[in-house]
Write a structure and sequence with these properties.
It contains 24 helices and 17 strands. With 630 residues, it is an alpha+beta fold. α5 runs antiparallel to α6 and α5 runs parallel beside α8.
C-alpha cells in the first residue's frame, strides 16, 4: 500500500525561500570572484561599512560622508554583524537573504487576504518575479532591506499590530530617504478605511518629519557636491518649480507617462503578475510616490527593471497582486476554476521570466561567472598593492579595494566631475597607486565624451606614475618622483627605433608604420608588442584594435582588445603628421601546442563597434598579419 506524502504550505514556502536564497547567493559569489560587479554601488556601501567600524562616515569614493549621498541609516544597524563577517560578500548574501525572506510576510499577508493555497502561489510568484532577480544581481543597495521591512510593515498593518507596524516602518525608513513617503501613504490608506485616528496621524507625521529631516541632513553632509535635482531638470531647478510645472502642465506629464520607455517599464512590471495589482489598487497605492519618482526622472535606468529601483516597490506590487486576486475571486466562475486560474498565473510569471527575466539564466550565470585566466591576472595586480595604500581604480577593482581609508573611482577623473554633479573633481595628490582597466566598459563608455581624453592626459602626464605591471588593457601604476609615462608617447621620428616596417592605412586616417614583437621576459607565454603610428589626417573616430592569435587552421586561440594609445592619446585627438609609440604586453593563457601560430590585428571604432577597412592585404575578417610565434 502506497503512502501519500502531503507537504505543508510552510514547508513548501521555506523550501522555495531556501532555493531562491541559495541559488542567488551562489551566483553573487561567483560574480564577485570573477570581477563581475561593474558599477560602484557595492564598493561605495562596503567602504561605508568599513568606515563605520573605524569611526567615520566619510566615503572617499563619493568625496563626501555617505549620509550626504543617501540616508542609509540602516548601515549602522548592520555594522555589528559586518564586524564579524567583514567582507563585501557578506553584504551580497545578506541582501539576498532579505529579499528572499520577504516572501514569508507576503505569504502570511496573502493567507489573511485569501487562503494558504493562494498565499503559496503569490509567494512563489514573488520569488520568480523578474525585477526581484535583477534587484538581487545588480550590486548591493540598502533599499533591498526595505523590501523585507515594508512587507513586514504591511502584514502588521493588516493584522492591526500598531506597535509592530511602527517598528518595521521605522526600519524601512532607515534604508533610504524616499521610503518615508510610503509610510505617509499608509496613513492616507488608514483614513480611507476609517481606521482609528492613531493609524492615520502617526504614520503621516512620522513619515513626513523623517522625510524632511533626512533631506536636511543629506543637504548638510552633501554640501552641494551631488545635485540630485538634476535628475528632474526636465521639470524645473527647484522642488517648487517642479511641483508648479507639473500642476501647470499636466499634459507634459501625460506625455511622459504615455512614452514608449515608460509604457515598456510599466508592462515589464505588471505583465508577470497579469496586471492584477491595478485591480488591487489598495495594496499598490503606497508605491505611488516611487512611481512618480521614476517616471519624472530623466535617468533611463530608473525606468528599467534591470537595476535596483523597484526594491521599495516590490512589497506593494505583490500586496496589490493579492488584492487583485481577491477581487477576481468574487467571480463564481473563477471560484469554480481556481486550479486553472492558478496554473495560468504561474504560467504568466514563468513566461515573463523566460521573455526578460534572469531566473532561468542562473545556470548560465554560474557558468559565465567563473574566475578565468584574466581574473587570476587581476588578482595578481591587486596583490601588488599594499593593504593600507591609497588607490584610484576603475570600477571592477573597487569592491576588492574597499578596506582602506582612501579609495577613489577613476570615472570621476575621466569625466572630470563628481557623480550627478557640476562640481569639478580633483583627486588628492596623496594617492599611491592607480589600477586602470582601459577597457572598463562603464568608465569609458558610460561616461564617454569625445574630449574626456584630456582628463586622462592631465592625470597621466601631469603626475608622475611608474608602470608596475601591464596585461592587455590593464595597467598598475605607482606614484614615483621622476617617472615618465611608459605606455605610450608622441615621438619625433623613427630614428634609433628598430622595427618591422609596415604601411597599413586605416580609413585613410592613420597608418601603422611598423611594430616589434618579442617575449617580454616574464615567461614564454608573455609577449610584448610595440606599435608605431602616424596620423595622416584628423579623424573623429576613436579607433581601437584587436590582436588575435590564430593557429594554422586560422582558429582563434586568444584575443586582446586594446584602445590605441590607452585612451590617453586616442586617435580622435591626433593632428596630421603626429607620430606615436606604444607598447602592449599580453599573456597567452595556455601553452601553445605544436605548430606555428600567427598574430593578426583588426581595427574597429570604439563607440559603435564598426569594423574598419584597411588599405592592404587582409583576411575575410579585415585583419592584417603581423607575424608568427611558436
Amino acid at each position: 500500500m502506497k503512502t501519500k506524502i502531503k507537504l505543508s504550505h510552510n514547508f513548501l514556502l521555506w523550501l522555495s525561500v531556501f532555493i531562491y536564497t541559495a541559488s542567488f547567493s551562489w551566483v553573487c559569489i561567483r560574480k564577485f570572484i570573477s570581477f563581475g560587479y561593474y558599477d560602484f554601488d557595492l564598493a561605495v556601501h562596503d567602504l561605508s561599512m568599513w568606515n563605520i567600524l573605524h569611526g567615520s562616515v566619510f566615503n572617499s569614493i563619493l568625496g563626501i560622508p555617505f549620509l550626504g549621498n543617501h540616508m542609509n541609516v540602516i548601515l549602522f544597524l548592520i555594522a555589528p554583524l559586518y564586524a564579524i563577517f567583514n567582507h563585501p560578500l557578506f553584504l551580497l548574501i545578506l541582501q539576498t537573504l532579505a529579499l528572499g525572506l520577504a516572501a514569508v510576510p507576503l505569504f502570511k499577508l496573502a493567507a489573511k487576504i485569501l487562503d494558504k493555497n493562494w498565499a503559496l502561489l503569490i509567494a512563489i510568484a514573488y520569488l520568480l518575479y523578474p525585477a526581484l532577480g535583477y534587484t538581487n544581481l545588480f550590486e548591493f543597495h540598502p533599499t533591498a532591506f526595505a523590501t523585507f521591512f515594508l512587507m513586514m510593515a504591511f502584514y502588521l498593518y493588516e493584522a492591526g499590530a500598531f506597535s509592530g507596524f511602527l517598528v518595521f516602518a521605522l526600519l524601512a525608513m532607515f534604508c533610504q530617504e524616499n521610503i518615508p513617503l510610503a509610510i505617509v501613504m499608509f496613513g492616507i490608506l488608514a483614513a480611507f478605511r476609517r481606521r482609528p485616528l492613531k493609524w492615520v496621524i502617526v504614520p503621516i507625521v512620522m513619515g513626513a518629519v523623517y522625510f524632511i529631516l533626512a533631506l536636511k541632513l543629506i543637504s548638510f553632509f552633501n554640501n552641494n557636491t551631488v545635485q540630485f535635482l538634476t535628475i528632474y531638470a526636465d521639470w524645473g531647478r527647484t522642488p517648487g518649480e517642479i511641483i508648479s510645472n507639473l500642476l501647470a502642465r499636466p499634459d507634459l506629464f501625460l506625455q511622459r507617462l504615455s512614452g514608449a520607455h515608460t509604457l515598456r517599464y510599466l508592462y515589464q512590471i505588471f505583465f508577470p503578475v497579469s496586471f492584477l495589482p491595478l485591480a488591487g489598487i489598495y495594496g499598490l497605492l503606497p508605491a505611488l510616490p516611487f512611481f512618480l519618482q521614476h517616471i519624472l526622472s530623466n535617468r533611463p535606468s530608473e525606468l528599467s527593471i534591470q537595476y535596483h529601483y523597484l526594491a521599495e516597490m516590490l512589497p506593494f506590487i505583490f500586496v496589490g497582486f493579492a488584492y487583485g486576486i481577491k477581487l477576481l475571486c468574487k467571480s463564481r466562475w473563477v471560484m469554480l476554476n481556481q486550479r486553472i486560474i492558478k496554473i495560468l498565473l504561474l504560467f504568466m510569471i514563468c513566461l515573463a521570466n523566460l521573455l526578460y527575466g534572469p531566473h532561468w539564466m542562473l545556470p548560465k550565470f554560474i557558468s559565465v561567472y567563473k574566475a578565468d585566466f584574466l581574473d587570476k591576472q587581476k588578482e595578481g595586480f591587486l596583490a601588488e598593492i599594499p593593504k593600507d595604500a591609497s588607490v584610484v581604480a576603475t570600477f571592477e577593482f573597487l569592491p576588492r579595494l574597499t578596506h582602506r581609508k582612501n579609495l577613489y573611482s577613476f570615472h570621476h577623473i575621466y569625466s572630470g566631475f563628481y557623480t550627478l554633479s557640476n562640481k569639478k573633481y580633483v583627486l588628492p595628490a596623496t594617492v599611491d597607486y592607480a589600477l586602470i582597466d582601459f577597457n572598463d566598459f562603464l568608465t569609458f563608455r558610460g561616461f564617454y565624451y569625445p574630449l574626456n581624453y584630456k582628463n586622462n592626459q592631465e592625470f597621466f602626464l601631469n603626475s608622475q606614475w611608474k608602470l608596475q605591471d601591464l596585461e592587455g588593457s590593464i595597467a598598475l601604476f605607482k606614484r614615483q618622483e621622476g617617472a615618465k609615462l611608459e605606455l605610450c608617447r608622441p615621438i619625433e621620428g623613427l630614428d634609433g627605433e628598430t622595427l618591422h616596417k609596415s604601411g597599413f592605412i586605416v580609413e585613410d586616417s592613420i597608418k601603422l608604420l611598423g611594430y616589434n614583437l618579442s617575449n617580454s621576459g616574464k615567461d614564454k607565454k608573455t609577449y610584448e608588442l610595440t606599435l608605431y603610428w602616424e596620423s595622416l589626417r584628423p579623424t573623429e573616430r576613436d579607433i581601437n584594435i584587436f590582436v588575435d592569435i590564430v593557429n594554422a587552421s586560422d582558429v582563434l586561440v586568444w584575443r586582446v582588445v586594446h584602445p590605441i594609445c590607452y585612451r590617453i592619446f586616442p586617435t580622435n585627438s591626433w593632428k596630421a603628421n603626429e607620430l606615436f609609440k606604444e607598447k602592449i604586453i599580453f599573456t597567452v593563457p595556455a601553452p601553445l601546442g605544436e605548430g606555428g601560430y600567427k598574430i593578426k590585428m583588426g581595427f574597429f571604432e570604439y563607440y559603435n563597434k564598426l569594423l574598419l577597412k584597411i588599405n592592404g592585404d587582409t583576411d575575410r575578417e579585415e585583419r592584417i598579419t603581423l607575424g608568427g610565434i611558436k
